[in-house]
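Private note to self, pasted from the team thread so I don't lose it. Backbone tokens:
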């Protein structure tokens, strides 16, 4: 999908900043999926680059080097795209780039529905409360659980990031999607319908859990 930087941003950025305004992959309350695509794609790449620059500077290494995993990923992807164009021609290259774009948008739509509107409260020190099960949406539909290897139990994935996907647990008081992942992804493309389905659940959750707040 021409998205190699996602590995860095997801593991070292998203998991640390999830459900905050600093996280590109956490959709904000009232934000449409189309606006989220643009923000998450652009700022996710920027965040991954900054994370790598910070890591290399701590090691005393130049960020512009082959030690920069984001830079290496971009170069590999560029070489791959050029190779496809040279070997197979422009039509196949266009088809590949289109397939990559579809893959990116599918991935970001999943990000959108997994964290939409859920924000961690600030603590007394000005930081955020630790990640809890109320900061990600769950979907306990059996088909989605089987086909996505329990990814749909996303609350437990973020609450216990070291737990293997196949043993992720369900939490009864975690936010629950009205539909499974495929249904919610389709509904998200119609923002008024998506908000009508999700906002009442968000508002009810915010009234019950002190660790959660909304940012209209």
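Design output:
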């Amino acid at each position: 999908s021409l998205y190699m930087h996602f590995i860095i941003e997801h593991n070292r950025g998203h998991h640390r900043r999830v459900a905050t305004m600093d996280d590109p992959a956490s959709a904000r309350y009232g934000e449409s999926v189309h606006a989220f695509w643009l923000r998450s794609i652009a700022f996710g790449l920027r965040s991954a680059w900054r994370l790598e620059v910070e890591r290399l500077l701590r090691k005393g290494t130049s960020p512009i080097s082959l030690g920069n995993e984001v830079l290496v990923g971009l170069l590999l992807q560029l070489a791959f795209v050029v190779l496809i164009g040279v070997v197979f021609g422009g039509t196949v290259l266009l088809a590949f780039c289109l397939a990559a774009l579809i893959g990116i948008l599918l991935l970001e739509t999943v990000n959108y529905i997994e964290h939409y509107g859920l924000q961690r409260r600030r603590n007394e020190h000005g930081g955020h409360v630790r990640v809890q099960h109320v900061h990600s949406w769950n979907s306990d539909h059996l088909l989605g659980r089987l086909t996505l290897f329990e990814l749909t139990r996303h609350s437990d994935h973020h609450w216990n990031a070291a737990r293997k996907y196949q043993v992720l647990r369900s939490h009864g008081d975690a936010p629950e999607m009205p539909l499974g992942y495929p249904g919610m992804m389709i509904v998200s493309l119609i923002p008024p319908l998506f908000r009508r389905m999700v906002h009442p659940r968000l508002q009810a959750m915010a009234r019950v859990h002190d660790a959660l707040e909304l940012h209209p």
